Structures are given as structure tokens and as C-alpha cells.
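User: Good morning. I'm curious how pantoate would be positioned relative to this chain. Could you predict the structure with it bound?
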Amino acid sequence: MIFEKTVKGVKEQVKSWREQGLTVGLVPTMGYLHEGHQSLIKRAVEENDRVVVSVFLNPIQFGPKEDLEAYPRDIEADCRLCEATGAAMVFHPEVTEMYGENFTTYVDMTGVTQELCGKSRPTHFKGVCTVVNKLFNIVTPDKAYFGQKDAQQLAVIKRMVRDFNMNVTIVGCPIIREQDGLAKSSRNTYLSAEERQAAVVLSKAIAGGKQMLLNGEKDGDKVLRSMTDIIEAEPLARIDYVEMVKWDSIEVHHKADCPVLVAIAVYIGKTRLIDNFIFDSEI
Ligand code: PAF
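Assistant: Good morning! Here's the predicted structure, ligand included:
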């Protein structure tokens, strides 16, 4: 497996793959890889001749009071996981390689970025879109893989690709969960033993809400009220949002009469965790 730190190196390698007629998949990550990332890499390896995993802790998608400094890192373990899963290259640039002096161009999307995480993290998606745009230009992948755990991010990237007529297919992949239901996340490592137990309340609320919709409940307010009750019963939990929006325009919509995303963000202690499900009554 190739370990590359420069944009030039990635471009040269991809050019050589292209000359051999090979297809290229990209899995963008911020590192500290777990089974969730691994499932994206596996899928990418199945569907492409060569797979690039970018490991870049993107500073511009973190707000001033967020966890950039504390965010866990382990590039050696990440490389081992990538190699064992069949990736052809890990791209691990320095911040200066991605954002040189006088970097001033950003992708600032409206609409899809406004609700859910966009409310409490107002600059987050600007940072995500900008770095993903750069990664697409550097790697020029045929397909790029994103987890549904960050469902709003998936909708945002799909919209960016559509709006900018980009030549890449976005593949959304299912949420991978721990045995007790907690969605896998690099941020789960912040939780104390007590908080880890409390964190199960997110997937409990998700399962409860989903069951109501599956049972035929169409009233979003009732579903969201019941999910809120489940979360509020956990003393260590503090709700950021419990919301139902249209999938994939991310407009608030409290009726399950079209494909909807039901998404939650909950603080367990100081750690903010997210979870969601997509419900389509037609399926
Ligand atoms: O989902 C993530 O890990 C990040 O937001 C991404 C897509 C790698 C951009 O930094």
C-alpha cells in the first residue's frame, strides 16, 4: 500500500492508474478508523480497481469551541486497517499541504446545510464541502463513499456534486453499530464507562421512532415527542436536536408522507453524538 503525503504524489499515482485503465474509489476520513470506516473501504474495494483512503483531520470544519485538539489520532493503526482491507493508498497530508498560505476559496452551501447540525455548527459544512471538493479534485475518483451516520453530510455532498456537475458517484453506506446499538464513531472514545452505558439511549430513541413509523404513525410530532421522552429519561443526556426533515432536501417536515430523515444529536456529558434513520413509506 502506498503512503502519500503530497497532492503531487497522489495526482501522479492516479494518472498512472488511469493510463492503465483502472477505476478509482475514494473514502474520505478524518482518521482513527473503526469498523464503520472499514465497511466503507470494503465496499469501495469491491467496486473499484484502486481505493484511496484520505486521512485528514480537517481543521476548517471544527468550530472554535469544538474538539479539534482532543480528536483522537493513530495514523499507524489507520494504515494497518487500510492495508488489511485492501486500500491501494492512504493520503495523509499536512494542514499546510491542503491549505497553503493565502488559502481563500470556500464552498458555502445554503439550504441543505441550514437545519440539524448546521444550526449548532454553523461553519461545519463550509469546511466539509471545501475539503471534499479539494479531495475530489486531487483524487478525481469515479466513486466516493460516505456513511449514512452523517446523513446530513451525505445529503450535502450529493447536492454539491449535483450543483457543481462533478463527475463522481456518491455512494451512501449503512450505519455500523456496536452490539448494544450505539452507532460507531471515533467520538465514542471520549465516553467514560458510565457515559458509554448512557449513550445507548440514542439508538433506543432511534429504534423507538422507527418502530412507530413502521407501525403506520404518520404524525412526525408524535414520533419526535416519543423519542424526546426516551432521551430525557436518561439523566446524562442533553438534547441538541430531535428532528424530522425531508430526505434529501433537509427541510423540516413533520409528516411521514414522503422519504424522511429522522435525526438526533445528543450530548452525553460533554460528548456530542448523532444518530438517525431514513424512512420511506413507499418501501
Ligand atoms: O465524515 C468525515 O469524517 C469528514 O467530515 C470528511 C467527510 C472526511 C471531511 O473531512
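The chain has a mean pLDDT of 97. The domain at 186-274 is CATH 3.30.1300.10 (Pantoate--beta-alanine Ligase; Chain: A,domain 2).
Let me know if you'd like a different ligand tried.
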